[in-house]
Amino acid sequence: MATLFDKLWEMHRIGDAGDGEDLIAIDRLLLHERTGGVALKSLAENGYGVRDAGRVFAIMDHIVSFRSGRSRDEARSPGGEAFIVETRAMAAQAGIHLIDTDNPAQGIVHVVAPELGIALPGLTIACPDSHTCSLGALGALAWGIGSSDAEHAMATGALRLMKPKQMRVTVTGKLAPGVTAKDLALYLIAQYGAAGGKRCAIEFTGEAISALEIEGRLTLCNLAVEFAAFTALIAPDEKTLAYVSGRTFGPQAEQEAAARAHWASLRSDADATFDEEIFLDAADVQPQVSWGTSPEHTASLGASVPDGADPRALAYMGLKAGDGVRGLPIGGAFIGSCTNGRLSDLKAAADILKGRRVAPGIRAVCVPGSQAVRREAAALGIDKIFIEAGFEWGEPGCAMCFYAGGETFPAGTRVMSSTNRNFEGRQGPGVRTHLASPAVVAASAIAGHICAPADILVEGGGA
Amino acid sequence: MPMAFQSHRGLAAALLVDNVDTDQIIPSREMKTVSRDGLGEGLFAGWRYTEPGGREPAPDFVLNRAGQAGTSVLISGTNFGCGSSREHAVWALMDYGIRAVIAKSFGEIFHGNCLRNGVLPIALPADEVDMLAREAGGAVFSIDLASQSLTTEAVPGWTGTFEIAPYPKRLLLEGLDPIGLTLKEAPQIEDFLDADRKARPWVYAAG
């Protein structure tokens, strides 16, 4: 009676590290330019080497420019090129895999890792980025760490960890048409709070989870860190196995059968027990929009800001209790990020945007999560739909998911965003971020105010 | 190499806000250096200065108030340090001079980052934190790691106790190098890898 998490833990447990901790083997260590260069440099300065360079990957995503036609070292933050140059040099010195700014596989680390088969079921994956939990969608044990732990993992091939508690979130029923994994995740966080995950390893299960495609599962697990989870997991199924098949860094042909047999065994036993249980009915979930400055400050699109809402958040967002967010005029829209920058996200937005125009005065930006997504979108004509609707169409990276200095929306601008965080200043000083699914962001950009896709369809199109 | 922490005596400031995220502790725009040093100036920059990117102190922000010079202990709410995994948040706290954070709970990655860098995260029950924020913001605290306890001049007779796992406690007390410690287990790691290569060869064939 072991959980999936128990099995993954035991499989990677090198031994008892003393003090109640275990030494856990790390199969893949991922870096990005914001902290990767610092970690590699510090490691070298302290006299340590990278134990197995073939299993360490550095990917440029955080502060690379998203300007179409960017140059190799171009950053979107003043002085940001130093991080790109430093990470490139240190990666070469360490002999690790480098997916550089001009590499046709470049993109956001959590988008690229599944695309290339760097993330696979059953692997332990650590990365100095909090949204590493995204990769649990494939049945991998993946979690965000700090730079010091990244150095530790590179030098030793392992991390010392106290086994976390476990939570199961069971989602029964079906999500209604137009209700997405993003809505489900925001709904969960709003119901139980941003600390509701209690530092647990969470397994998502149930009919509604099985029904999600892999990209939706990645979105759901991506937001587990906003729920204060240690990580999230979804047991691999036929969809997962089909998804990972034939990826660049996946098993070679002669290993494929053994790998598939192993992956098929990765599931919680029927009688396994969890420390915490949450049950949700998918039918209760409607399209969500955040109103405040924490992902827990979220409600259904048509609901009003609750009584007793955090006054600090309301002051920042220019709202008061009882206000509805539906109908609020917006000044910006962003579609992209490791949460919602995949092909299915762009398709969902394009379905709304096709033949319509963004409302006057709105800056709307779409940045595909990876070069592969960008190419696939172009092959489907999605790039043209975005551009003809009035969106900027960027080069892959984290882009306007967070402000890094440099250009952004003017202070006070209300921005609809497909990203993961609505913190104060997250998208720039004074910028008011409302989190939502790509379709809701697209519909709001067309209408010029926060609205549901159905509102646009009824109105019959924008100007 | 982490800084040792045995005991600490210092001035506290109450920043009783829930979900203080690492973007607030150090905004991304303030992460200008490819090193761990010099980040204290960017600590809480969005709240501490009147203008983004400026250095004019915002008079209402707690660390700028009269009598708060030299603050080395923060009191805060639920889920302190949630958000981005950026270790710069802890480096900024350290560089400013903060050695301990008392909160109702902590973000998971931030909590680990604190322990790796010599900042002590102290989780106390919500009602105790509320009481301390009310009674002891601006007061001197004495913190002792060995006995996992703390007191404050402002609340005579009160002693708080906190949990810390044995391994990080040892690291902090002795200022040990975690990589060096783990590398003592190198033979055990090699044995594991030898067996695992046979069991899961595809893991080791990347690229």
Sheet with the most strands, sense and barrel status of chain A = 5 strands, parallel
Helix content of chain A: 25-40%
Sheet bearing the most strands of chain B, described?
A: 7 strands, mixed
Instruction: Categorize the overall geometry of chain B.
Output: globular
| Spatial extent as radius of gyration of chain B | 19 Å
Going by helix content, strand content and strand pairing, the class of chain A is alpha/beta
Helical fraction of chain B: 25-40%
> What coarse outline of chain A follows from CA principal-axis ratios?
globular
Strand order of the largest sheet of chain A: 5-4-3-6-7
- What's the alpha carbon Rg of chain A, rounded to whole Å? 21 Å
Task: Kindly describe this structure.
The complex is a heterodimer of chains A (463) and B (207). Chain A is α/β, with parallel strands linked by helices and 463 residues long. Chain A is 33% helix and 17% strand. Chain A contains 17 helices and 19 strands. Chain A has helices at 4-12, 36-45, 81-94, 109-116, 147-156, 181-192, 207-211, 214-222, 238-244, 253-264, 311-317, 337-340, 343-353, 371-379, 382-389, 438-447, 453-459; strands at residues 13-18, 21-25, 28-32, 56-59, 97-99, 124-127, 141-144, 158-161, 166-172, 201-205, 231-233, 276-281, 288-290, 298-300, 332-335, 363-366, 391-393, 414-417, 432-435. A 5-stranded parallel β-sheet of chain A has the order 5-4-3-6-7, with helices on one face. A 5-stranded parallel β-sheet of chain A has the order 17-16-15-18-19. In chain A, strands 11-10-9-12 form a 4-stranded parallel β-sheet. In chain A, a hairpin with a 7-residue loop joins strand 13 (288-290) and strand 14. In chain A, helix 2 crosses helix 5, helix 13 (343-353) runs parallel beside helix 16 and helix 16 (438-447) packs across helix 17 (453-459). Chain A is globular. Chain B has 207 residues and is of the alpha/beta class. Helix content of chain B is 32%, strand content 16%. Chain B is built from 8 helices and 7 strands; from the N terminus they run E-H-H-E-H-E-H-E-H-E-E-E-H-H-H. Chain B has a 7-stranded mixed β-sheet with strand order 4-3-2-1-5-6-7. In chain B, helix 3 packs across helix 4. The longest helix of chain B is centred in the last third of the chain and has 14 residues, at 186-199. Chain B starts with 6 loop residues before the first strand and ends in an 8-residue tail after the last helix. The relative contact order of chain B is 0.18. The model of chain B has no long low-confidence stretch (mean pLDDT 95). The interface between A and B is large, with 82 and 60 residues.
